[in-house]
Design a protein that fits this description.
Order of helices and strands: EEEEEEEEEHE
Largest sheet: 6 strands, mixed
Strand content: 35-45%
Structural class: mainly beta
Radius of gyration: 13 Å
Strand order of the largest sheet: 2-10-9-4-5-6
Number of helices: 1
Length: about 130
């Protein structure tokens, strides 16, 4: 069964950090560009970051640039999102997803360019 499972979300104070994980089962994550998206209540799903299949290239939305770091360990079939200096505006459900497109296309972080999705993990930034 092809599956993506996100974990690592939780409640954190402003300025704090979290590391999200996206673990794949049933397929090889190394064959895909992987993206992280987020969705807050009443808003559209927003692209946060993506990483090339090899892990050598990364892309970030302006809203998280300098605070978030995406990485991958293909041996563990897992992609990570390290989130530092968290703000209340980062509160959302975070999803990972695969893209069969090149990083050049996937870097636009459009929802429709990504295929398999996980169930999401809640991140809440609040004092």
């Amino acid at each position: 069964q092809v599956q993506l499972v996100e974990s690592g979300g939780g409640l954190v104070q402003p300025g704090g950090s979290l590391r999200l994980s996206c673990a794949a089962s049933g397929f090889t994550l190394a064959n895909y560009v992987i993206g992280w998206f987020r969705q807050a209540p009443g808003t559209e799903r927003e692209g946060v970051s993506c990483i090339s299949a090899s892990g050598s290239s990364t892309v970030y939305a302006d809203s998280v640039k300098g605070r978030f770091t995406i990485s991958r360990d293909n041996a563990k079939n897992t992609v990570y999102l390290q989130m530092n200096s968290l703000k209340p505006s980062d509160t959302a459900v975070y999803y990972c997803a695969t893209s069969s497109y090149s990083l050049g296309l996937a870097s636009n972080l459009r929802y429709r360019d990504f295929g398999s999705w996980g169930q999401g993990t809640q991140v809440t930034v609040s004092s």
